[in-house]
């Protein structure tokens, strides 16, 4: 929340922002609905493609307050099975001039037990007029040796209540986590998660997404695409992307030297390029959620045309506050009309399809 930035540290401001939303102290936004932003994905009728990325509501405490901001969907967490404190403070740093954030939280989590209570309470209050879709980002504990079992616990505990599940194998702040993106390890995790999902006692099983890093080699991209795009993989989508360990030369703020994952405007093009690559490599078979540096309707449209069906924000919410949600929606709706797209779904992967036509 921008006002809080002037008063306190980045992490304290973050926690205060979550508390304000949790206790309903922020007025409900007058969310506008735009016909050209509505889209059917899976069995969802998404009112708009603008969502909240994981990491804001780590403990799943402020679901109602976040949905009141006008998001089409939100992703809460990441949550680990057992409580863990994360890394030592300070572990979050603002880069104001760069519209960026560096964090090294390290999956600080209260664990599944309290988070499931919050999610179940939200689920039990649901009416037929659903305001948005809710997913949970699943992490593994730092000390866990069998990563697949941590993700399975997440499916078993949250799967009965949420609309989608995200397997986070790409946080840069948990030692060894990104190695789980390797083909063999990823296949092992996916097999276990999909099997657990199939056993949930609900008719419509929650779609499963895998969240990947932006710092991937070409061979990494091909390996991940091969796994998730296989027709029997059981994976429904990708979240692209997590934070980056790279540091663009353009960074101005002194905090650029801090260790951790970089998010915000400097990640924008890197994540958009990866969306385009993965959309092409997966032949458009999986739903992509694009995240990284979305501050405007143009940023959102760039990711959609690269192959994202949905987009998420985080840093722009921190820097510009809740009004940024309606701003992005309004700008995106106007841009779609200006570029001749009848509906947002018509723009998904447009640039990739155009490139293919140009080279064929």
TrEMBL record:
Cofactor: how and how many bound: Binds 1 FMN per subunit.
Gene3D superfamilies (UniProt xref): Aldolase class I
Keyword DNA repair recorded: no
GO biological process: 'de novo' pyrimidine nucleobase biosynthetic process; 'de novo' UMP biosynthetic process
Domain of life: Eukaryota
Membrane topology annotation: Single-pass membrane protein
Keywords from the UniProt entry: Flavoprotein, FMN, Membrane, Mitochondrion, Mitochondrion inner membrane, Oxidoreductase, Transit peptide, Transmembrane, Transmembrane helix
EC numbers: 1.3.5.2
Catalytic activity: (S)-dihydroorotate + a quinone = orotate + a quinol
All copies of domain Dihydroorotate dehydrogenase catalytic, residue ranges: 37-336
Entries under InterPro entries matching the protein: Aldolase_TIM, DHO_dehydrogenase, Dihydroorotate_DH_2, Dihydroorotate_DH_cat, Dihydroorotate_DH_CS
MF terms (GO), sorted A to Z: dihydroorotate dehydrogenase (quinone) activity
Compartments where located: Mitochondrion inner membrane
Cofactor(s) the record lists: FMN
CC per GO annotation: mitochondrial inner membrane
Family per record: Belongs to the dihydroorotate dehydrogenase family. Type 2 subfamily.
Name of the featured protein: Dihydroorotate dehydrogenase (quinone), mitochondrial
Origin species: Bugula neritina (Brown bryozoan)
């Amino acid at each position: 929340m921008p006002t809080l930035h002037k008063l306190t540290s980045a992490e304290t401001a973050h926690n205060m922002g979550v508390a304000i939303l949790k206790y309903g102290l922020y007025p409900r936004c007058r969310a506008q609905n735009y016909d050209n932003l509505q889209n059917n994905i899976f069995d969802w009728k998404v009112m708009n493609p603008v969502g909240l990325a994981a990491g804001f509501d780590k403990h799943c405490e402020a679901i109602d307050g976040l949905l009141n901001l006008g998001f089409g969907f939100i992703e809460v967490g990441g949550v680990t099975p057992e409580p863990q404190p994360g890394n030592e403070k300070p572990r979050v740093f603002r880069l104001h001039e760069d519209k960026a954030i560096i964090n090294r939280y390290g999956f600080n989590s209260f664990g599944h037990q309290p988070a499931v209570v919050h999610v179940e309470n939200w689920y039990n209050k649901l009416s037929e007029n659903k305001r948005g879709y809710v997913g949970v980002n699943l992490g593994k504990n730092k000390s866990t040796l069998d990563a697949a079992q941590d993700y399975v616990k997440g499916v078993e505990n949250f799967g009965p209540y949420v609309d989608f599940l995200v397997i986070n194998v790409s946080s840069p702040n948990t030692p060894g986590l990104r190695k789980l993106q390797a083909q063999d390890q990823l296949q092992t995790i996916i097999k276990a998660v999909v099997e657990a999902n199939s056993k949930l006692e609900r008719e419509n099983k929650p779609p499963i997404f895998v969240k990947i890093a932006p710092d991937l080699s070409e061979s990494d991209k091909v390996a991940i695409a091969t796994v998730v795009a296989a027709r029997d993989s059981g994976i429904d989508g990708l979240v692209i992307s997590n934070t980056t360990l790279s540091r663009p030369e353009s960074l101005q703020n002194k905090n650029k030297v801090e260790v951790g994952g970089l998010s915000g405007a400097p990640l924008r093009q890197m994540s958009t390029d990866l969306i385009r690559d993965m959309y092409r490599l997966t032949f458009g078979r999986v739903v992509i959620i694009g995240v990284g540096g979305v501050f405007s309707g143009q940023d959102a449209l760039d990711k959609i045309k690269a192959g994202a069906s949905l987009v998420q924000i985080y840093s722009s919410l921190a820097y510009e506050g809740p009004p940024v949600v309606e701003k992005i929606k309004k700008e995106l709706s106007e841009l779609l009309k200006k570029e001749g797209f009848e509906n947002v779904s018509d723009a998904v992967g447009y640039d990739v399809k155009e490139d293919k036509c140009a080279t064929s």
